[in-house]
Design a protein that fits this description.
With 419 residues, the chain is an alpha/beta fold. The protein contains twelve helices and 21 strands. Bound molecules: pyridoxal-5'-phosphate. This is Diaminopimelate decarboxylase.
Length: 419
């Protein structure tokens, strides 16, 4: 969001006009920003002879977002059969989709195989069963390098107590299964967690994976996952992607020379590509002063944006409609029937009832983690593409809430009609 000529804009579109047109609360995505991030990461790792970026679509699966990345030449990283289906619907070639599930049934794995997508296997039990049924299908193995990366415990997934991946110490076991079943391992993979605070730890993971790679002679690619951190505050920690890119590609190219084949270097960023492109807009319902706090209560809550309550995530909040107001301290809260805080003790331009507040970094893991808690509707999504705002998901209605419910005739009574 930029402040231009006394008004806030997103990609050149006036923010208040977006609320007028689409209502509040609403998620707004700047397509140009997503493209910019895609080009930035491609350039940062451009030293690799074969680079493949697979957008980790769990961050945001709106079909238009998927198509945007598909048109940019991205592949797709998926973790559920539904994400696979969405990717195919969006026009991705099955070969450009990597399926990286965790703790899913063999049945779901088999369904993904039947769609022709690439498989990433993260436990030995499934490796044995999958290998037995699909001997000719090349696969990728997700290894857990046992390093502690990631911004907090909920998003650190490469450590010894994590459920993800096959332990690096179990590589000898993997090799026995591979040899017994005659499997072709075309890829190795790691993902150590989101919001990596120290690139050096990530590079340690890279070294561990490369050491393991020597034992796999049929590799076509190595996928180092993601976790690239974007800033959530002004001056906040961010991965220096250009520096990491230069260091990692040098190391990777040297590895390929030793390995004797030009492998593809793969990454699967989610947050890096879409986090900063998103802004969440909401309306202030009430300003409530208690003996200790001034609350700004908005027409949203953890049902729409759970990251502050779930991860203690900081999302920058701005009063868009009264930017000239006197700065005061507010705790911004939602309307959900439990502690539901978006930001504590934030300095905002004076907030009046009706004011529009924005939350930044609302592209990744925001709409996707929204729910119908308190039986509220999920908000609309809007994309700004080529300078114009487009509705890309309508706000839910009562019909959406009722659509999956099955009424038992024995309990049914005539009720008031639903509007
Ligand atoms: C396997 C895998 N790859 C990629 C990602 C994307 O991570 P990020 O959003 O930090 O880029 C995740 C996130 O949870 C993941 O689990």
């Amino acid at each position: 969001m930029e402040f231009v000529d006394g008004r806030y804009q997103i990609a050149g579109v006036d923010v208040l006009s977006l609320v007028e047109q689409f209502g509040a609360p609403v998620y707004v995505y700047d397509a140009a920003r997503m493209k910019q991030q895609y080009h930035r990461i491609s350039k940062a790792f451009g030293g690799a002879k074969r680079l493949r970026i697979n957008y980790a679509c769990k961050a945001l699966t709106n079909l238009n977002v998927l198509r945007l990345f598909q048109q940019l030449g991205s592949g797709l990283d998926t973790v559920s059969m539904q994400e696979v289906e969405l990717g195919l619907l969006a026009g991705f070639d099955p070969h450009d989709i990597l399926f990286t599930p965790n703790c899913v049934s063999l049945e779901e794995v088999n369904r993904a195989v039947s769609k022709g997508v690439r498989m990433n296997i993260d436990n030995i039990s499934i490796l044995e069963q999958f290998g037995d049924q699909h001997r000719g299908v090349p696969i990728c193995i997700r290894l857990n390098p046992h390093i502690m990366a990631g911004g907090n415990s909920k998003i650190s997934v490469g450590h010894i107590d994590s459920k993800f991946g096959i332990s690096i110490h179990q590589v000898p076991h993997v090799l026995k299964v591979v040899s017994a079943l005659g499997l072709k391992i075309e890829g190795l993979h790691m993902h150590t967690g989101s919001d990596i605070l120290d690139a050096q730890v990530f590079l340690q993971g890279v070294e561990i994976l490369l050491r393991a790679a020597v034992d796999f002679p049929d590799l076509d690619y190595i996928d180092f996952g993601s976790g690239f951190k974007v800033p959530y505050k002004e001056g906040g920690i961010a991965t220096d992607i250009e520096d990491l890119g230069a260091r990692l590609t040098d190391r990777f190219n040297a590895f390929c020379a030793d390995y004797g084949r030009e492998l593809a270097l793969m990454f699967e960023p989610g947050k890096f590509l879409v986090s900063e492109a998103g802004t969440f807009l909401m309306r202030t319902n009430v300003v409530k002063t208690t003996p200790a706090t001034v609350f700004a209560g908005v027409d949203s809550g953890l049902n729409h944006m759970i990251r502050p309550m779930f991860y203690d995530a900081y999302h920058h909040i701005v009063n868009v409609s009264n930017h000239g107001g006197k700065p005061r301290i507010y705790t911004v809260v939602g309307y959900i029937c439990e502690t539901d805080t978006f930001g504590i003790n934030r300095q905002l331009a004076e907030v009046r009832e009706g004011d529009i507040l924005s939350m930044a970094n609302a592209g990744a893991y925001c709409y996707m983690m929204a729910s119908n808690y308190n039986s509220r509707f999920r908000p609309a999504e809007v994309m700004i593409l080529d300078g114009r705002a487009h509705l890309i998901r309508r706000r839910e209605t009562m019909e959406d809430l009722l659509g999956t419910q099955v009424e038992l005739p024995a309990l049914a009574r005539p009720v008031a009609t639903v509007e």
